[in-house]
Amino acid sequence: MAIVAAVILAIGGAAYFLFFTPVPVIEIIVPPAARSIEELSGAQFDPAGVVNSEDFRSLRRYAGQPSVGQTGRPNPFVKY
Known about the structure:
The chain is mostly helical. It has a domain at 1-36. The chain is 45% helix and 0% strand. The protein is built from 5 helices and no strands. The longest helix is centred in the N-terminal third of the chain and has 18 residues, at 2-19. The termini are far apart. The relative contact order is 0.05.
């Protein structure tokens, strides 16, 4: 009888904590500088300004384009 009561008490406690305890608010987790979505959506980005900037044009490629090697047998259904 005590075991059944303990199981019911554990299930009731778990249900209480899952469904009835207050949920931590997102504003507490997010830093104050990033709280407002309006601030983030109002950010302006000019891709042409980035591509045409002197810093972007001064970048160099140190590796060539990757090449596609042999990806398998020409006919994968032929016996070995």
